[in-house]
């Protein structure tokens, strides 16, 4: 009985190893190489971003008024870039607000 169990475990392990090898082979055959934007695509992305940001500044950050620029921005740039530029815009606006309006520091525990 013990040899039979060990044999079954061995068979299962071999099947698992073969399945892993097959997955690696299939993944390497079907994997697409990364598609990096060309210089002209990057310039188009940056121009669309700048147009969108200019609209947001002009329209007091109204997404509805700038939807046409947003569509051009999203279609011209890779998704990861769009996320990055969105975070950057919000950070720059926050930083600008802190510089112009100032801030009240948080009261922490007093040190003795």
UniProtKB/TrEMBL annotation:
InterPro entries: COA6 (IPR042289), COX6B-like (IPR048280), CX6/COA6-like_sf (IPR036549). Gene3D superfamilies: Cytochrome c oxidase, subunit VIb. It is found in: Mitochondrion. Its main location: mitochondrion. It comes from the Eukaryota. One of its GO terms (biological process) is respiratory chain complex IV assembly. Pfam families: COX6B. Keywords: Disulfide bond, Mitochondrion. One of its GO terms (cellular component) is mitochondrion. PANTHER family: CYTOCHROME C OXIDASE ASSEMBLY FACTOR 6 HOMOLOG. This is Cytochrome c oxidase assembly factor 6 homolog.
């Amino acid at each position: 009985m013990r040899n039979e169990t060990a044999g079954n475990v061995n068979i299962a392990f071999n099947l698992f190893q073969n399945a892993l090898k097959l997955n690696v082979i299939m993944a390497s055959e079907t994997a697409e190489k990364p598609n990096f934007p060309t210089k002209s695509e990057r310039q188009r992305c940056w121009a669309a971003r700048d147009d969108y940001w200019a609209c947001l500044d002009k329209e007091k950050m109204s997404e509805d008024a700038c939807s046409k620029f947003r569509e051009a921005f999203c279609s011209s740039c890779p998704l990861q870039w769009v996320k990055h530029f969105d975070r950057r815009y919000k950070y720059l606006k926050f930083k600008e607000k802190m510089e112009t309006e100032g801030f009240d520091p948080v009261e922490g525990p007093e040190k003795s």
